[in-house]
Amino acid sequence: MDATTVAAAVDELAGFLRADGADLLLRDANPKTARVHLALVLDDVSCADCILAPDELRNTISAALERRIAGEFELVLDDPRRGQ
User: Fold this and answer.
1) Which domain holds residue 38?
2) Hey, how many other C-beta atoms are within 10 angstroms of the C-beta on 65?
3) What is the tally of structural domains in the chain?
4) How many Å separate Cα 36 from the centre of its chain?
5) pLDDT at 83 over 70
6) Is the N end or the C end of the chain the one with fewer CB atoms within 10 Å?
């Protein structure tokens, strides 16, 4: 897992969220543990209904990352709507 590739993929995904005031932050991309840790930021969301539901968002992010990241990885997504 290449951290640069992960960062580019996360930034691309975040672009879709930024249109509605949300953001997606890369907290860590650890090749030793094969873990990608992201945080969803909803501080400036103008359209709460425009953001996918937590499970749908996680699945969408995971699928997009799987297309860019070689090998298996664990996705950790901090989503404030889940009380994390």
Assistant:
1) 3-82
2) 20
3) 1
4) 9
5) no
6) C
The encoded tokens of residue 15 equal 């672009």
CATH number of the domain that residue 60 is part of: 3.30.300
18 vs 1: CA distance, rounded Å: 25
Give the span between the Cα atoms of 80 and 84, in whole angstroms: 6
| Model pTM above 0.70 | yes
Residue 36, helix vs strand vs coil: strand
Instruction: Say how far apart CA 46 and CA 43 lie, in whole Å.
Output: 9
Comparing CA positions, the residue from 60, 65, 81 lying closest to residue 26 is 65
Alpha-carbon distance of 15 to 22, in angstroms, equals: 9
**Contact (Cβ atoms closer than 8 angstroms) between residue 10 and residue 75:** no
The closest of 19, 11, 3 to 61, measured between CA atoms, is: 11
Q: What share of the chain is helix, strand, coil (3-state, %, to 5)?
A: 45, 25, 30
